[in-house]
């Protein structure tokens, strides 16, 4: 494992003085039991509407993916023990999960693995959704997380293609539901955080697969967990989104996976889509100053 | 466990993180399997063979915990020489009467107790009269069966050929790894891993726990499944010790409580049996059938428990002169359990039915029979949160669609009364480890919603009001009943007052009016009351102990100050066994309670489950019964001989030891014995409840696959509390079947397509989930496919967010004779691609299958298996 | 609000007058966001409860505002569940406030084709009448040999595993006193 450089401090970069330590999620897929408590606890706390009653056939996943009305999503991946239609029965129906600590992992040809992991907004250090939002609806909080301000968002949708993970989306319905027409995603339960509480998903999680806390500490814990798993022979274990040197500057919500990210439906090498923006911003700043003068004049006129 | 009790599973994960080995044995690969170190698929209905194989491994390889076995179990006890084991009689024990399908259990008794056992042998399943009280197997929730005395002959060298240990060795000798493979479909090298792990993790330093649910109880031999685990755990010394035990994971918030304070036909509170009609119909006769004064243990005080109950119910009206109102109790004389009642409904013997938070139209086996039965009622009261299928069967049920019932022809008057939710009432749930926890009312129930407490209290008042002037003898039990609970806002009875009555009071003397602190204070002279003796102490010191909520982080790992566990706030039962015969912990690692020589008492992390000042070296004089008859090394204080029963000399109706029988509907012949299925099972042979043939009967190939049912994390049982919740409904919106890729190929089933599953009862349609999690098994050289059906969906509920065919519709009804639980975890079926026929074509489709299989009402009902040559 | 204050809160101005020069943090924070408070904080009260689904017995905290349950979540004090809940437990608020919950009495008359409304008191009276009527008609005082039975087999009951002990106690006590013996629950099933 590479040594962690001190992460950028996104809260300080966005005007927060004396901000608390950056907060995040460490989602450990090696202990997820796929119960979906996180999905329900999230919806219940945040008043998110039910969004589909179709059986998808993706193992036990009938949620499909993150979206405006799904802020936590548990992926289920069945990795077969034998080729479908292979004919004669394998005489070895034993299955050993690969993340056991006492027994050796089963060989791939005799063992089915049922991988489960709860996905969520990554709360990127370099968040493209935030960069492109023209209204200031997307905001970096004092906890270093990224939230949509429902009362500011006008539903323009610029943030949607900007997200390298396809997380954020505009809520299209049902009619009468809260926040229809505007962009929605995980807030890391910003309201709860402000009261010193744990986000709803992490609080509900029966097996502590979802851990909430100070990002630095979570990263240290995650490194230790990977080392532990490697020592137990689970060489597939790896972290995803924990490296500040990656294309998004490291995620505020990162994961321990037992296979390649693509297996879980995650992009292997996500890059902030606004990587070239800083140069563009210098130009924008000049334009902004001009706008400021004009806008201030207009404002005074409107009030008088 | 991860699937159905996810939050409980956190402790398994914690154990795993500390180095525990997790083994999952199940026909189905679940979320538990995914996290286990070892998963073994087994054929549904074969577990006794599997458990027997482990017992054989333990005995053959001398892996048992000898000191524990000799001192704490009945291994050394000598059994009657008249006993003949199943091996000698083709799969039957001695004493079987083929005409009645029952056993005379005399020959199963301990040596010297044969006569007494005979007195208790007129115990029969089914509808025959049962003359004596306290004999059916399901009444022993708090104890083993009675013995006339506890003076048994023992051979502590375990060499006597008639000692329990030697009987056990002979009985299980044929349960070899090869036999396990032949019956269960588990290869010997995999089976060996389980045997090695279980035995390596048992002994002084380590313990193994077994966890089960209805996958074990819902068989015609369900009780013997649990007995199989009990034998393993007693042999390995895993009972009464931390990290040990046989843990029943119960599926409803207070299903334990509803057994302790039973809404069950054959029990009064705290496992006192309902009185039976007949010669012993007075109080003394009733008590004599529960216990004898010569036996050991706390059941000898049953008179104090019973009289205190009668005082709680009839108060001042319960006197010495009227046997404390014993005669007011109704009598049972047959099996009045649920499925018998359903059949009686079909025969128009039942007019009125109350459904209280229960949805049998979806949740009970043979759903069609349930719904047809309810259409015969005169009136039906349904109390629930939602308009469940059982309330609306007459309107939109499946039989309306097939034309088998017409709404206009159904005379059942239906009252749907909306219920209060748990947040809308005070009260206790008893969870799966006997812990009573008080839940506080948060808000008033909306509109017409009321608690059951409210409904039954006010129904009682209305009934009393109407009968106020009645002079009829039959009405006196109600009119003299104590029924004066104080009420709170909204005329809601005070649940605390009810809990106080349950706890019990001193009625006279200095302490008159104060709460009992323990059932040991109960008296048989009418000076105490108490509605459920095992719960006495929940209100000790006048405090609602069940409402204690000292945070777990502020107390020991046993957490004795959170809620209250029965009995006496003990968290592990029989914990005397956590210390060796001298009273010292078996090991420091596993220390739990122990004898403090200096203080002259038992002490430890938990409330000792033993007389606290009784030294380990204490030996009673001959002839002393009751608690004082318990020796200092008799940890099983509710057993009549103080020992854990490897062998049950009485109390079970289908054998003193578990023996492998095939499920009633099985694709294979019993490899162990000529006798195919449990000969004492309860059956309901009728048109509404047909059984498909099993070998050696012809026709079983028409239903070639095994079908089993189960639950998903996202739903709750019959769906009454989950299919109406949008957040849960969207997580598992549709009824589906799980099949292996091999079976899908064999039958042309497509993933996400439709399949029709047909049994002798009916056919249902389900979406197909083809998954490698389902493993075809090789059983006796033949590939056996198993089909899994989650049973949460139903058709016809009002306002349900999701609905679908009900898995339980395909299951039949045959019962375990001991506890009257249905055989619904393994049945025979066929599966075909595509949707099922609709309308009248559906019953025709089912009938065509029956014709091909040659099914009649008699199919599958022979108690003794016909031999292949027809003899 | 004074003009001066309003101007100071204007995001574009804040962007230049605070450290959030790019307008991605403090500069764009809305008044609504600034006042964001969890509803558990503004609840009128919290009561401790127990999850009503399976028998693990997880602790719940029930938050109430305006005499309505507004949140149910795990109770961290519980040594059983340590604040955690499964999806069913997490959906408890919907069980209580569910969109499909029927809160009034529904009545279906014999041979009727649809539900009708009925006042609760009337329903209770009618049920009491049905119980006594059936009981009188199906009463068994003694068996053929004269042994007392003191019961009716004309009435039966199923349920109790989701109910409180106190409720089951009254159910068993009342039914026994009126001679109903066919009292059963999920523990049998």
3D structure, described in words:
The complex is a heterotrimer of chains A (304), B (871) and C (189). Chain A is of the alpha+beta class. Chain A has helices spanning 10-13, 37-46, 128-132, 159-162, 190-194, 200-204, 215-231, 277-303; strands at 23-28, 72-79, 113-120, 138-140, 146-148, 169-170, 183-184, 210-214, 238-240, 253-257. Chain A has two domains: 18-79 and 107-273, Alpha-Beta Plaits; 275-304. Chain A has eight helices and ten strands. Chain A has a four-stranded mixed β-sheet. Chain B has 871 residues and is an alpha/beta fold. Among the domains of chain B are: 9-74 and 167-248, Dimethylsulfoxide Reductase, domain 2; 682-853, Barwin-like endoglucanases, CATH 2.40.40.20. Chain B has 24 helices and 26 strands. Chain B has a six-stranded mixed β-sheet with strand order 19-21-20-26-18-24. In chain B, helix 3 (47-60) packs across helix 8 and helix 14 packs across helix 16 (367-374). Chain B is globular, with a radius of gyration of 27 Å. Residues 116-137 of chain B have low confidence and may be disordered. Chain C has three domains: 3-34, no CATH class; 39-97, Single Sheet (N-terminal domain of TfIIb); 106-188, no CATH class. Chain C contains eight helices and eight strands. The longest helix of chain C has 19 residues, at 120-138. Chains B and C meet through helix 11, helix 14, strand 9, strand 10 and helix 17 of B and strand 1, strand 2, strand 3, helix 5 and helix 6 of C.
User: Which value, in Å, is the CA radius of gyration of chain A?
Assistant: 22 Å
Terminal-residue CA separation of chain B: 45 Å
In the CATH hierarchy, the third-tier topology of the largest domain in chain A is known as Alpha-Beta Plaits
How many discrete structural domains of chain A? 2
Which class best fits the helix and strand makeup of chain B? Answer: alpha/beta
Based on helices, strands and strand pairing, what is the structural class of chain A?
A: alpha+beta
Q: Quick check: average pLDDT of chain B? A: 94
CATH class of the domain at 682-853 in chain B: Mainly Beta
- The CATH topology assignment of the domain at 682-853 in chain B is Barwin-like endoglucanases
> How confident is the prediction overall: mean pLDDT of chain A?
85
How would you write the strand order of the largest sheet of chain B? 19-21-20-26-18-24
Uncertain residue ranges of chain A: 1-7, 82-110
